[in-house]
């Protein structure tokens, strides 16, 4: 086989078919498997641009599977968010329903928010969501989480700082 100009091209040529097959088994859909296989190699290109050399991979299939698994989890999470969003929309009166463009933008924003909150400590995330979505007081949140009110204040400060640093200002 002739040498290619780029190590990722070699990796792609050697492992793309295997990765697509592996993803098809995980997802049960060859179209989604093909998309996520491509996304896996795009992720490798991005990582290489940030300084992670592909030549250093000792176990390329294990590495590809790890990257692809993360993309599968993100795919499932996005589908779950989309299902919940569509369910919420279906309960809205027609005049209040957003346009298709607004739906797409809102779904993207929900996915970004989910990813942002996923990077928080689980208790800080729970405290933030209970305060923002359920309107619970810090004392009520403390009871739910089994921590002190002071700890809830600390969790809320962490969550708000995290939101501000990411450019999202909580209400």
From TrEMBL:
According to the entry, every stretch annotated as the RNA polymerase sigma factor 70 region 4 type domain falls at 112-163
Q: Per UniProt, which keywords does this protein have?
A: Sigma factor, Transcription, Transcription regulation
Q: Which Pfam families does this one have?
A: Sigma70_r2, Sigma70_r4_2
- Gene Ontology MF annotations: DNA binding; sigma factor activity
Transmembrane stretches, start-end: none
One GO term of the biological process aspect? DNA-templated transcription initiation
Please name the NCBIfam families in this protein's record: sigma70-ECF
Q: What is this protein called?
A: Sigma-70 family RNA polymerase sigma factor
């Amino acid at each position: 086989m002739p040498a290619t100009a780029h190590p990722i091209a070699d990796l792609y040529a050697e492992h793309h078919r295997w990765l697509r097959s592996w993803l098809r088994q995980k997802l049960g859909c060859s179209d989604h498997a093909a998309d996520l296989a491509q996304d896996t190699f795009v992720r490798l290109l991005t990582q290489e641009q940030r300084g992670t050399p592909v030549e250093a991979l000792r176990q390329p299939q294990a590495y590809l599977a790890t990257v692809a698994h993360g993309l599968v989890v993100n795919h499932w999470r996005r589908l779950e968010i989309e299902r919940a969003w569509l369910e919420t929309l279906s309960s809205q009166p027609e005049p209040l329903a957003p346009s298709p463009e607004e739906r797409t933008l809102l779904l993207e924003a929900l996915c970004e928010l989910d990813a942002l909150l996923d990077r928080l400590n689980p208790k800080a995330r729970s405290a933030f969501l209970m305060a923002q979505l359920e309107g619970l007081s810090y004392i009520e949140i403390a009871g739910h989480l089994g921590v002190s009110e002071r700890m809830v204040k600390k969790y809320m400060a962490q969550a708000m700082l995290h939101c501000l640093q990411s450019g999202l200002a909580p209400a």
